[in-house]
Each structure stands twice: as C-alpha cells, then as structure tokens.
C-alpha cells in the first residue's frame, strides 16, 4: 500500500491526536496541582506570620498593671570592665569595695558564701587576710571538757554574719530581712547596674508622695519605698590608695566587689575559654591543611586514556 493513501486516512493520525491530548491533559493536571500547592504554601506562610505577630503581642510585650512609679526606674547601663570578654575585674576597686562592705554593709548584710581564703590573691595577700580573719572570733568545739569555746578566725572560715538567725535580723531592722549579698548581683534584674543605681538613687520624695513608716524613697527600687536607708555618704571611708571616697566611687567599688562575690571564678572561666578558642582555631587550621594534604593528589591528578592502536 502506498504512503499517500495512508496519510489521507483519518485513522492514521488518530494515535498522534490521542497522545497529544493525553499529554496536554496531564500537563493541565500538573499545572492545577502546582497552583494548589502554591496557594496552600502562601496561606500557610501568612498564617505563620499572623501567628507570630499574635504571640509577640500577647507574650513578648505584656501589658503591666503597675505604673512606672510602682516598678521603679530602669537602671542606666554602665560600662563595667568585667563585662568585656577579654578583660577581668579591677582588683584595686575590689579591695576598696571590700573595705566599703566591711564598714558600711557588714553590720546588716551577710556574705555567707565567701570564705576568707577566697580573698587571697584577689583583694589581699595571705598575711593580710590572716590578720583580718584573726580579728573575728568564731565558736568552736567541743573541747576536751565538752564545752564550746571562742577562737580566732582562720582562712577556712566564712565571713561572719551580723545576726545569729533570721528572727534576730528582722528584729534589728524593723521587721525587714536584709538579704545575703553573696549572689545579690545575680539575683536582681539589671545586675551591677541595678545595685549601683539603688545605692545612688536616694532622693527626697516628691510632693504628695507618702511613704510607710520606716521606708525611704529610692527611684530605682520597685514601689520606690525601700526599708534600707541611705548608707553611702561622701567621706564615709578612707581609702588606702588615696582615692576620693565619693558616694558614686564607693557605690562603684562595692558593686564591683559584690559582682566578684557572685562570680569568683569569672576570670578563670574567661582564661579557659580563651585558651579553648585558640586551641580550636589551631586544630581547625591543622584539619584544613591535613585535608588538603590528603586529598590534593586525588583532586589534582589527571587520568589519560590512550586507546590501543589497531
């Protein structure tokens, strides 16, 4: 049968028409499915963004039922040297801060987590610390007769508490309990900034503000009424190095000391961290060199195929 009569018959083109129709139908179906997926993805993205916005509105920025006066002012941020990743405490300031604590704070606040030995090499020498510890008498015993006795302090003793128990502390402070200062920097929002602001934030109450009995007006204390009176005044202590004992200087020094008391291992941690970073950097460089040394012969080799000549 010749080719021309076959081409003139409609049955000859039927398989091609069916194939094109099937291809167009599948293409149309895939396009429809892709549009559905795009629509679904768009709706999911919009829903996620709206959900995050509602979550932020509800939790990240909560509405407070208290006023700014009841919350207290937010403390100003100060550039404390120990906050830098490559610097530590100002040890001269720590020595002055311990003196401020002894003469202004120790009569009400304890420092129960700090032992005399912790001061060695930080604020005082061994001999100076021993002399300070021996000025305090500690209960010890029992002796051979079964009786308790007093003895001078040792480096292993912890700094003494001004009160024997909580009831005595409240009785001596009008019902208020002076907190232990060992972790006070970590226990307060704002840390050093808050402590410094509290110590320097005493002012006369504004006109019309009435405080309860035994309370003092402090701008940075929540509620602005604090039981602790102002304890730092210019010239309260006499520094050994001749530094002027202004209120802000004493607040700065004692805040530094309390920050060290809360983190006595901070400088050691920074030194170890720096050593770890340097060590990992060296190991990373060695690993890159070793990888290139092992793989460069394989990555730079040239394979040539020479077919045999026939």
From TrEMBL:
<dbReference type="GO" id="GO:0020037">
    <property type="term" value="F:heme binding"/>
</dbReference>
<keyword id="KW-1133">Transmembrane helix</keyword>
<dbReference type="GO" id="GO:0046872">
    <property type="term" value="F:metal ion binding"/>
</dbReference>
<dbReference type="Pfam" id="PF02167">
    <property type="entry name" value="Cytochrom_C1"/>
</dbReference>
<keyword id="KW-1278">Translocase</keyword>
<keyword id="KW-0496">Mitochondrion</keyword>
<keyword id="KW-0813">Transport</keyword>
<keyword id="KW-0249">Electron transport</keyword>
<dbReference type="InterPro" id="IPR021157">
    <property type="entry name" value="Cyt_c1_TM_anchor_C"/>
</dbReference>
<keyword id="KW-0999">Mitochondrion inner membrane</keyword>
<feature type="binding site" description="covalent">
    <location>
        <position position="228"/>
    </location>
    <ligand>
        <name>heme c</name>
    </ligand>
</feature>
<dbReference type="GO" id="GO:0006122">
    <property type="term" value="P:mitochondrial electron transport, ubiquinol to cytochrome c"/>
</dbReference>
<keyword id="KW-0349">Heme</keyword>
<dbReference type="GO" id="GO:0045275">
    <property type="term" value="C:respiratory chain complex III"/>
</dbReference>
<dbReference type="GO" id="GO:0005743">
    <property type="term" value="C:mitochondrial inner membrane"/>
</dbReference>
<dbReference type="InterPro" id="IPR036909">
    <property type="entry name" value="Cyt_c-like_dom_sf"/>
</dbReference>
<keyword id="KW-0679">Respiratory chain</keyword>
<protein>
    <recommendedName>
        <fullName>quinol--cytochrome-c reductase</fullName>
        <ecNumber>7.1.1.8</ecNumber>
    </recommendedName>
</protein>
<feature type="binding site" description="axial binding residue">
    <location>
        <position position="105"/>
    </location>
    <ligand>
        <name>heme c</name>
    </ligand>
</feature>
<keyword id="KW-0408">Iron</keyword>
<keyword id="KW-0479">Metal-binding</keyword>
<keyword id="KW-0472">Membrane</keyword>
<feature type="binding site" description="covalent">
    <location>
        <position position="109"/>
    </location>
    <ligand>
        <name>heme c</name>
    </ligand>
</feature>
<keyword id="KW-0812">Transmembrane</keyword>
<dbReference type="InterPro" id="IPR009056">
    <property type="entry name" value="Cyt_c-like_dom"/>
</dbReference>
<comment type="similarity">
    <text>Belongs to the cytochrome c family.</text>
</comment>
<feature type="domain" description="Cytochrome c">
    <location>
        <begin position="92"/>
        <end position="244"/>
    </location>
</feature>
<feature type="binding site" description="covalent">
    <location>
        <position position="108"/>
    </location>
    <ligand>
        <name>heme c</name>
    </ligand>
</feature>
<dbReference type="GO" id="GO:0008121">
    <property type="term" value="F:quinol-cytochrome-c reductase activity"/>
</dbReference>
<dbReference type="InterPro" id="IPR002326">
    <property type="entry name" value="Cyt_c1"/>
</dbReference>
